From TrEMBL:
PROSITE patterns linked: MULTICOPPER_OXIDASE1, MULTICOPPER_OXIDASE2
Organism of derivation: Rosa chinensis
UniProt-listed Enzyme Commission number(s): 1.10.3.2
Name of the protein: laccase
Family listed: Belongs to the multicopper oxidase family.
Subcellular location: Secreted, Extracellular space, Apoplast
Cofactor(s) named in the record: Cu cation
Source taxonomy: Eukaryota, Viridiplantae, Streptophyta, Embryophyta, Tracheophyta
Major place of residence: secreted
Length: 600
């Protein structure tokens, strides 16, 4: 017989081999086929674009520091690109994904082997299409685990689950896009929000397919929450349970306990759910945060169910019933957020759990109270930019442009809606900017994106001269020297229709050092910046009638997209490009392009 020492050695060797196996699996190639698939939601069936027929798409798993390859095969009807949201891709913008920025689309019938280089990320990220409006259904989660031999900075959870918040249109999303681009107006609002692809109990023909999370009492579940919605910042909560937030955008945060979270399109939140309530069924729910109620939005609520089960997998309570009342026009509305009653088999009334608390749609204090509560965990002070070498102050605005020719447009006063940064509404080229930069192709883009708004006025006033609403249209980029210590201040304006803007930067995460309301004061406001434990994120929400300031070190050479993650604003031109030049050393230089880059 083996001695205890030999058994221990054998088990250690087996454990080591298992870790190696899992690591190799995480670094293996993925094969993804983009294709049309048929899905039924809200009592109607339509064809949607998917990856491998799944909606949401497959989970990509990796360890911190891994390199993963994804073979993307386009069997759909449209050009497609895939972006790995929040992955820094050091020196490798070639696989970053935004169409006409770092590549041209993968054409129908074409393929592209994308190289995803993970570096400092640890936690939850996501991937999505970055061409037209395809990301409405082409998206999925990325789980980045601690390196083998290391662990989370919190007790290992009993289980993990993606919570992907999305939007659903009954009509084809490409038709939604084509219509509002053609008319110059706003896109039709979505018909539903979804949790993991399902609308939930409050929508017609949806109850039986509502997503359910089965849990055991007194266990910890890691919820990997992703806002994949196209045009809505969302509140999310779980009835009778607080959430402990431990990470955001794949960077650990100081743990905070909260009854709800606010999450903008593009953002992720890692939250621990401790199942410490009485056995039962509890609703998870999400609905919009909309700072400006004058702008049309989807005001519905998506739900899923946390279902307590015993050790044998049996549910411990009867299902809930949803009560609906009708207004004078016969429109269905959700019952007041209070106790709901259901009947058991004997007709006896029983009390069901409370519906979760969600702040009201335009509760700005609640939305930014959550955002501002996030702080970095165990931050390395050398990573925080204390003194800047480059400062960019950029307005973010909704604008209007004159209607073209004899066309009738549906924007304000017969105009076409547009959007801008520093009064430039970005025009996408027909050759991608990365290719033009690398091969010195002239005429594709211009340098000279301004460091400061070209027009100075009271950005947060209520009334403006119409001339201020009309932006320049151009393809201007900002060039940064390698190693620059950069600060970007996003100044929101109330031109045309003020609203909150989630601004996302590719290739980097940044520290959010300050946010505020009103006009940014370049002398006074930096005095209150948090340079001690600012959160590290890749998407910052710029408040309505306010500003947000971020800082980062420009040490990732390449061409990197900077844009609003509300899809309609991206379509209207609220974006620009940062080109970070090569450094002096080989490891500070852009990698060469892969041989199978999609042709333009």
């Amino acid at each position: 017989m083996w001695s205890a020492k030999k058994w221990k050695s054998a088990l250690q060797a087996l454990s080591f081999l298992l870790v190696l196996f899992l690591h190799r699996q995480a670094s293996a190639d993925y094969n993804w086929v983009v294709k049309e698939s048929t899905y039924t939601r809200l009592c109607s069936t339509k064809s949607i674009l998917t990856v491998n027929g799944k909606f949401p798409g497959p989970v990509l798993r990796a360890y911190k520091g891994d390199t993963v390859y994804v073979n993307v095969h386009n069997r759909g009807r449209y050009n497609i690109t895939i972006h790995w949201h929040g992955v820094k891709q050091p020196r490798n913008p070639w696989s970053d994904g935004p169409e006409y920025i770092t590549q041209c689309g993968i054409q129908p019938g074409g393929s592209f082997r994308q190289k995803i280089i993970f570096s400092i990320e640890e936690g939850t990220l996501w991937w999505h299409a970055h061409s037209d409006w395809s990301r409405a259904t082409v998206h999925g989660a990325i789980f980045v685990y601690p390196k083998p031999g290391t662990s989370y900075p919190f007790p290992k959870p009993h289980a993990e689950v993606p919570i992907i918040l999305g939007q659903w249109w009954k009509s084809d999303v490409m038709e939604v896009l084509d219509e509002f681009v053609r008319t110059g107006g706003t896109p039709n609002v979505s018909d539903a929000y979804t949790i993991n692809g399902q609308p939930g109990d409050l929508y017609p023909c949806s109850k039986s397919e509502t997503f359910k999370l089965s849990v055991e009492q007194n266990k910890t579940h890691l919820l990997r929450v992703i806002n994949a919605a196209m045009n809505s910042i969302l509140f999310f909560s779980v009835a009778n349970h607080n959430l402990t937030v431990v990470a955001a955008d794949a960077a650990y945060t100081a743990p905070i306990s909260t009854p709800y979270i606010t999450i903008s399109p593009g953002q992720t939140v890692d939250a621990l759910l401790f199942t410490d309530q009485q056995p039962g069924r509890y609703y998870m729910a999400a609905r919009a945060y909309q700072g400006n109620l004058a702008i049309g939005f989807d005001n519905t609520t998506t739900t899923s169910i946390v279902e307590y089960r015993d050790g044998n997998g049996n549910s411990k309570t009867a299902p809930l019933s949803i009560i609906e009342y009708r207004d004078g026009s016969g429109n269905g509305k959700t019952a007041p957020l209070s106790i709901i009653e259901y009947k058991d088999g004997s007709g006896n009334g029983k009390t069901a759990p409370l519906f979760p608390y969600l702040p009201y749609y335009n509760n700005t204090n609640a939305a930014f109270g959550f955002f501002n509560s996030l702080k970095s965990l165990d931050i390395n002070q050398t990573d925080v930019v204390k003194t800047t070498t480059t400062r960019i102050v950029s307005t973010v605005s909704v604008n209007t442009l004159p209607c073209l020719g004899n066309q009738t447009c549906e924007g304000p006063n017969g105009t076409r809606l547009a959007a801008s940064m520093n009064n430039i509404s970005f025009v996408d080229p027909r050759v991608d900017i990365l290719q033009a930069y690398y091969y010195y192709i002239k005429g594709v883009y211009k340098e000279g994106f301004p460091d400061f708004p070209p027009l100075i006025f009271n950005f947060t006033a209520e009334d403006f001269p119409l001339i201020l609403e009309i932006p320049e249209t151009d393809t201007k980029v900002k060039v940064l020297e390698y190693g620059s210590d950069v600060e970007i201040v996003f100044q929101n304006t109330n031109l045309v229709a003020g609203i909150d803007h989630p601004m996302h930067l590719h290739g980097y995460s940044f520290h959010i050092v300050g946010t505020g309301f009103g006009n940014f004061d370049v002398k006074k406001d930096p005095l209150s910046f948090n340079l001690v434990d600012p959160p590290l994120r890749n998407t910052v929400t710029v408040p309505l009638s306010g500003w947000a300031a971020v800082r980062f070190k420009a040490r990732n050479p390449g061409v990197w997209y900077l844009h609003c993650h509300l899809e309609r604003h991206l379509s209207w031109g609220m974006h620009t490009v940062l080109i970070v030049k090569n450094g002096k050393h080989p490891n500070e230089t852009l990698l060469p392009p892969p041989l199978d880059m999609p042709p333009c």
